[in-house]
Amino acid sequence: MTASSFPENFLWGTATAAHQVEGGNVNNDHWEMEHAEHSPFVESSGDACDSWHRWEEDLDLVAGAGLNTYRFSLEWSRIEPEEGEVSRAALDHYRRIVDGCRDRGLTPIATLVHFTMPRWLMHDGGWTGQKTGDRIARFTELALPAVRDAAYVATINEPNLMAVQPVIGGMARRGEEIKGLPVPDQAVSEALIGLHQRSMAVLRGAGSPPAGMTLVGLEYIDEGGGQEPMQAARAAMMDQFLTAAEGDDFVGLQIYTAQRFGPEGLIAPPADQQTLAHGMERRPRALSAAVRHAATVLPDMPLLVTENGIATADDEDRIRFTSDALQSLCEAIADGVDVRGYVHWSLLDNFEWMLGFAPTFGLVAVDRETFTRTPKPSLAWLGEVARRNGLG
Ligand code: FCB
Questions:
Q1: Domains of the chain (ranges, CATH numbers)
Q2: In the chain, fewer beta carbons within 10 Å around the N or the C end?
Q3: pLDDT by residue (tens digit) across 135-188?
Q4: H-helix or E-strand containing 320?
Q5: Whole-model pTM?
Q6: How far is the CA of 221 from the centre of ligand 1 (A)?
Q7: Please, are residues 196 and 137 in contact by the beta-carbon 8 Å criterion?
Q8: 319-338 burial, b if ≥16 CB within 10 A, otherwise e?
Q9: What is the spatial distance between Cα 106 and Cα 70, in angstroms, rounded to a whole number?
Q10: Bridge partners, residue 352, by sequence
């Protein structure tokens, strides 16, 4: 390894999530929230990128660029549209995506739950419901045959961010200023950790591919006098989740930004350093800070960067951002942090949840009328980094 090269067999890929790209996911909680009166969603996910039909073209783009990994997620509401009713066709769809990856030399990374749940679950307890443990266990059993040939299976995407959502919702309703990610709701955190463990138990019992969860990772910065609130935030947001991952096969980290703290707690980033999405600070080096921290909590745990990227209309800036982020990752790996791969968010410009289609995280643009995919220069650039296995 030189100063800007990566370990042998390093994974290089891009990620998507079912609800953000498939389109027509009319049977999950998000669709319902998108269409509710006074919805906080600026628009409907609608047809999204029509990847339900165009997934082969998507895989061709990833493989054609020279990348070797594709991360995608399963949509529970398609697989189990009503409680106990199973769509074999939907399961087969996801199994074909795994096979389609393998056929193209792509390493598949499958996520079982990426934020969305079926409507029936939303109306009967949601993530914190009493029966949800049994239900996610059953869903995992159903889903496993479809993803058995994946290289990695993630149970739940970003449970630590999911536990922040209700807190943000409450602040928004009270008209409080949101300066960054507040501390997650502890009861929700514990419920989600419990669900991860139920799903893991099924995977373990059935001899699944290496399994774990993916977490939002952040760089934590003390601007002076902020040690106490910073440590408390990091303990709630990162350390309790990392500790809960002990015994898993890997931890996925999804790193976009930093959080700054002063004596009063969170400090919002200066306006001129905010990116297009979520008012996040543009902070490429957060990538190495977050993987380094995870390695201090879980020294023997293989880590995967399962998301990293930037929402920008300026593709050259995407390349600069990613190059700086990767340079910092390289340094962390050289210092001994066990990172096995880097998966960029996202393959496509897609449905960015409450913000709709405006934030563009994609390496590939998608025409909103025709769904035509147009690769941006950043796709070829990342493919070249993958071929070289280094920044060059
Ligand atoms: C992550 C989500 C992913 C995407 C990116 C920008 O928190 O996992 O679906 O929205 O942020």
A1: 11-388 (3.20.20.80)
A2: C
A3: 999 999 999 999 999 999 999 999 999 999 999 989 988 999 888 899 999 999
A4: helix 315-334
A5: 0.97
A6: 22
A7: no
A8: bbbbbbbbbbbbebbeeebb
A9: 6
A10: none
Q: Dihedral sign, CA of 316, 317, 321, 324?
A: positive
- Alpha-carbon span 155 to 65, nearest angstrom: 28
Orientation of helix 88-103 relative to helix 132-147, angle to 10°: 50
Pick the atom of ligand 1 nearest to 352's CA: 10
Q: Is 219 helix (H, G, I), strand (E, B) or coil?
A: strand
Which residues are CB-neighbours of 127 under 8 A, at least 6 positions away?
117, 162, 188, 191, 192, 195
CA-based nearest residue to 248, from 290, 193, 291? 193
DSSP states of 286-317 as a string? HHHHHHHHHHHHSTT--EEEEEE----S-HHH
Exposed / middle / buried, residue 350 (Cβ in 10 Å: 0-12, 13-18, 19+): buried
CA terminus-to-terminus distance, the chain: 12
Res. 2 pLDDT band, cuts 50 70 90? low
322 Cα–ligand 1 center, Å:
16
Closest CA to 336 of 378, 294, 372, 374: 294
> Given a cut of 80, is residue 194 above it in pLDDT?
yes
Rounded distance between C-alpha atoms, residue 255 and residue 350, angstroms: 18
Ligand 1 first shell, C-beta below 6 A: 17, 20, 157-158, 161, 216, 254, 307, 345, 352-353, 361
Integer Cα distance of 99 and 94 in angstroms: 9
Residue type at 326 in one-letter notation: L
Ligand 1 pocket test target in 158, 165, 241 with most atoms within 8 Å of CB:
158
